[in-house]
Amino acid sequence: KIVQLFSQEQRKAAAFDKTSGSLMKSYLKMVIVFGIFRPSIYFFYILGLIIVLLFGGNQVIKGYMTIGVLVVFIEYISNFFEPIQQLAEQFDVLQSAIAASEKIFTLLDEKNDILEASNPVVMSSFRGEIEFKQVWFAYNEEDWVLKDVSFTAKEGEILAFVGATGAGKTSILNLINRYYDIQKGQILIDGKDIREYELASLRRNIGQMQQDVFLFTGDIKSNIRLKNETISDEQIQEYAKYVNADGFIQKLPKGYDEIVYERGSTYSSGQRQLISFARTLASNPSILVLDEATANIDTETEILIQDALAKIMQGRTTLVVAHRLSTIQHANKIVVLHKGRIKEVGNHQDLLGLRGVYYELYELQYGKV
Predict the structure, then answer these.
(1) Is the distance from CB of 320 to CB of 158 less than 8 angstroms?
(2) Which residue, of 108, 142, 168, is where some domain finishes?
């Protein structure tokens, strides 16, 4: 649709033809090599057989060799060339395997930038106290995305982040999960640096819900369970009901056994989001991280999602990123970011009273306050 919308059919078709032509040439080269290699093996096999028959036959006639010995030598020739012929038949498979193995080993040789402590702390759950202490962070070691960022979130609080695109909101959420490590400062959960925690237990206790929900190929049950076999079918249904997902799931032909294709392409964005909420609830995280979780959702589904979010956030420390300020007015604290720095901190009414960056953002979205 996008290609047609911008009238790029011919250009894209030409690019596809070029790529296809290059692929065809590569295949032709492979076919030519295979066409030469296999007959060559067969030629040498026949040549060896002829030599053995001529020489051996002459020896048998002269009485220097028995027919049985000649038959053994013929069998030797056959056994010698048989594996070579099989190798020739699998030549194209071998070439593909070599190319694939190069990619696999390149991936395996990649260094893991996120390293665990020598004796990491394993946590079954967190209280949920979060603190950023003078955090500096850059993706490429040059351009600072976050500059001297400090804030705290108490247990059970809802902390929202707002700001223009590129202000560093999503980067903060990524750092909580240790997808990246900071260059300066500290990130603490329950008073301990997150680098001291076991990575698996840290991420297990943080439930992240994003705008672009990824569903795996399988069925709805497997997407909520995520290989955690301790979660029963009854619990899955209970979680789905709790986040308002059971209504549309029950209307599907196979219910919770309904097929899910890669990325959940046959479901609406709202339905995918509700399934992801049930999945998050099933993991019972101590901390919630919401990155534009209600964006691009129709009004009717948004009501269900907002209700589901309110239920999930009860008793959990929650970090929220949202562009629509109406969705974060209930937050205990709102952090206003601008070009990687914190400009304002407070609740909705306090920030409006400051008539600063937050006030301007609110005015842009909703007009005069």
Answers:
(1) yes
(2) 108
- Pairing relationship of beta strands 333-338 and 341-346 according to DSSP bridges: antiparallel
Beta strands 341-346 and 130-138 are unpaired
pTM of the model: 0.72
The parent domain of residue 15 ranges over 2-108
**Domain boundary residue, one of 75, 108, 141:** 108
Q: Are 357 and 337 in contact (CB under 8 A)?
A: no
How far apart (Å, rounded) are the C-alpha atoms in residues 369 and 364? 10
From first to last of its 369 residues, what are the pLDDT tens digits of the chain?
Answer: 677 777 788 888 888 888 888 888 877 887 787 777 778 878 888 888 888 888 888 888 888 888 888 888 888 888 887 877 777 667 667 777 887 888 888 888 877 778 888 899 998 889 999 999 999 999 887 789 999 999 999 999 999 999 888 889 999 999 999 999 999 999 999 999 999 999 999 999 998 888 788 889 999 999 999 888 888 999 999 989 888 888 899 999 999 999 998 878 888 888 888 888 889 888 889 999 988 877 666 666 777 778 888 888 888 999 999 888 888 888 999 999 999 999 999 999 999 999 999 998 888 887 766
Q: Name the nearest CA neighbour of 257 among 233, 239, 277.
A: 233
Residue that is written with structure tokens 């009717």 in the block: 300
- Find the CATH number of the domain harbouring 335: 3.40.50.300
Residue 222 CB partners (closer than 8 Å, separation 6+):
216, 260
Task: Give the separation between CA 52 and CA 33, rounded to whole angstroms.
Answer: 29
Dig out the tokens for 317 from the structure: 């420390």
Please count the other Cβ atoms lying within 10 Å of the Cβ belonging to residue 181. 13
Cα 337 to Cα 168: distance, rounded to the nearest angstrom: 7
